[in-house]
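Let's do one together. I've listed all components of the complex below, 907 residues spread over two lines.
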Amino acid sequence: MKGIVFTELFDMVEGLFGVDMIDDVLDDCELESGGAYTTVGTYDHNELLQIVGALSKHTDLPVKDLLHKYGYHLFFRFHEIMPVFFEKPKSTFEFLESVHDHIHVEVKKLYPDAALPHFETERNDDDILTMVYKSCCPFADFAEGLIHGCVDFYKENIEIQSENQNMAEEYSRIFTLIKQ
Amino acid sequence: MSIEDRITRLEKRLAREKSARQQAEQLLEEKSYAFYKLNEQLQEDSRLLEATVVNANDGVIITTADLANGGPEIIYVNEAFSRISGYDPDEIIGKTPRILQGPDTDRNVLDLLKSSLSKGKPFKGELKNYTKDGDPYWLDISIVPIRDEEGTITHFTAIERNITNRKNFEKELQQEKETAEKEIAERQRIEAQLQEYTDKLELMRFEALDAQKKAEEASAAKTEFLANMSHELRTPMNGIIGMAEMLMDSNLNSDQRENIEILHGSSENLLSILNDILDISKIEAGELEIETVPFHLGTAVRQTVQLFLPLATDKGLTLDMDRADDVPSAIIGDLGRIQQVLRNLISNALKFTEDGNITIVLRATMDSETPSLYLAVEDTGVGIPKDKLAAIFEKFTQADTSITRKFGGTGLGLAITQQLVKLMGGEIGVDSLEGQGSTFWFTIPLTMVSEADVLVNLYDDKQGAADIELSKDLRILAVDDHPINQTFARKLLKKLGFFYVDLAENGLQALDMIATNTYDIVFMDCQMPELDGYQATTILREREEETGGHLPVIALTANAMIGDKEKCLKAGMDDYLSKPIKPEKLIAAMKKWTEPSAAFETSDAELHIPSVSEAGSEIMDWDRLHMFTDGDQEEEQALIEMFMTYAEESLEILKNFRHGEDEEWKKAAHKLKGSAANLGAQALSNVCMEAEQSVDQDNAAKEQILSDILASYEQVIKLLNNEKIEA
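Okay, and this is what the predicted structure of the assembly comes out as:
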């Protein structure tokens, strides 16, 4: 998992709960990296799970909510950090469709060792987009947050239905976006 | 939170940040290095690609994708393009590729190109472009659209190959193909024509085969005609010769005798020509049969040589025999043909020799695997020019056409001779020096045989047979349908002292007469009307089986073709004589087939051993005389008489030297020289040679020589007379 996911999370936690919260969380974790992250580094995704787990304990918020909230927050941050990916897509559907074919391709160029999730899209008709999330990491909630962030970013009225796939719901999920 | 705690927390935070910074620095360094390497790799790739493009043999042009407006704009060309087109990069970059096109650029291809590119599809085709100087060249062009990441076509890359040579080559090929097609068409036409000719040839071949068959039939007919013709000609010839011979034996004055002799000589000559013609036609028809019978070689050669003694003597030539001691006396072969070959060669030698001698040489090669007999006739005559030697054995060829005028002859003699020798399995050849003489030689395979087996020419040998006294009371029946032959037969027999001669015209008549009369011998012609000789003899033999007895029947054959002898013997005839009938042959046959007389037993070889006088050996070489006569008294006597007749004639001329011409003296001396030499009178011959050489000397000298000649002659005569008395 790319270091930016950790650094952005710490930035959000610091903004919401103050800098000491990060120290508290890290004191609770046993991290191989020692909690020192850089945006360009790559780290074990289990460290993120530990951090979010510890955060949930300190804040009394469910992990699921925290991940969703973080995803939603990160989408807007993406727009600030990497505006280039937002040049072309003019809508939620366009953006989501560009993730797999364009954004991930570019990410792979920059970080050949990046382990990226699968985002397959299918436009059933002009108003309905199906997106399938498949990953080696259990971050379906995080993804859902991102999608929500996207819809709100483009300020569109789109209903997001999610459907868990199989038993490992956090690893794989089907999202159906329906324009209202 | 205490200050200490806070400090601890801040220190931790600081440590985290420091660690993060170190990580970041390390990552940055790694990334930088990776980028550096990547950049290097890219530069290398780029360099290779650029080198490839720049140095490619094919022209490479990169244009913008602007199909509308002024057309695409050239942004890159490689060296090969400049080479092909003649444009330097700075002359063409920024321009449209359309300036490369010209009047002969195919518009259809251009349209296809535009439509492909506008649809974003690659184009491939052949196009004619023009160089900066306006020369056309052919391109195999391949244009590929280049797209950006969004798939938008931004450029076109054209790769061009100059195929002008190929195009020219294709054009040449096309022309060659057309030429080849024309040639094929032409060849097919010729083949058709050839087929036509072949068909015609086949037809002609059939016609030729037909013609050949006809020609063969005609040839066979010709051979048959010749055989019949010669038979028809020989019958009257035999009549003429026979009658002439009888006339010669009657009382005649010298004019008449001369006329008859000319008549006889001409007839003999004509008959020999006829025989030549018959021989050559038989040889050519493959109908001449070579016999293999045991005979006495010495007798055969001697008899042949003897025939020419009168002629040689008359010409003043010496006839000699040179027989090696190891030549066997009895051999197997064709007696008649060997004698014929010898006759031809000796006759030729005599014809072409004016002076000197003719020697008959006999040699035998016994030690080789294939023993052979060598016979040669050496003369001291005119010889044969070198350039004529090769053709001398060809038919109708003589060394010189003037020879025909001078010496006569058909030109068949040597051709026949050669063929006969070949048929006998031998070889013939000639060695000659012009002006010095010729040696005609031949060989035949030699098969020896015991003398006791010799049957053929025993009775010809007058030893013994000569002593048989034939009864003049023999009753003879001569059967011949031809009136001339009948007359001849009767006259000849009567002349020989036989008066009991009956004549029959055909077989039927003959059988009737045999049935009613008694005969001792029958001479039977073969070809007769009503009943021929063969059939008549067969019937006779059948009758004899019932009645017993055996009447000798001698066939008289005229055509002597292959199988005639067998035919005669098969029909039951006892012997055969081929025409012309010579008295001696007739007598010999009668002696052989009538009741044998006791005289056979009384024949005594000792009687004939010549007595050699040592004292007279210089005057008279008896050996030489005996060589020709083999000690035969009768023959010896005949030779001596002939010699004396010639000698007297010559002497008369020589004695007349004071009044006669020198030329006559020379001729007479020459003639006597030959006669004397042939007889063995060597001293006389020598003195005659002196006379011949001293023709230019004065009469006193001639007188002296003449007296020498006469003295020598006297001595010879004396010796000869003594011999006569002894005999």
